[in-house]
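Possible regression after last week's pipeline update?

I re-ran a chain I had predicted before the update to compare outputs. Posting the input and the new output here so someone can diff against the archived version. Not blocking, just want to make sure nothing changed silently.
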Amino acid sequence: MKRTAETDRVSMRDRLADPTLLDSAFAVAVGVTNGQMRYRLAVPVGGSRRAGFLTVANDAEAEATLSALAGRQGFPSVRLRGNASAHGASRTVIWGEDFPRSDAVTRWRRLGYSDEAIVRYEQQSSGSL
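New output (post-update):
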């Protein structure tokens, strides 16, 4: 399925412990594909959500995302995670607290996901579904 700000919104509504954070979320224009502007949804920190991220296709999209988020309420410490491994490689823009890549449960909690969403993730990861 093609990712858009609206598909991101639906997905996040199912994941967040506090879906009212979506009231302050906004669509970030990240780039153009086939003559059409592409958008991703940026969800602010708040409550149990202490961090957020968007993974975008390349450096130009990362710069556009950094620019859109810089200085906005709910998006503290906006930065790029790591270095690009190759020109044109995907990049991840993060805000708020750092979160571990290796400990999925801690990462999902820091992202403000509900206990139910975390259980679903663990079941899918272990093949229990």
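Follow-up from reviewer: compared with the archived run. The chain has a mean pLDDT of 88. Marking as no regression found.
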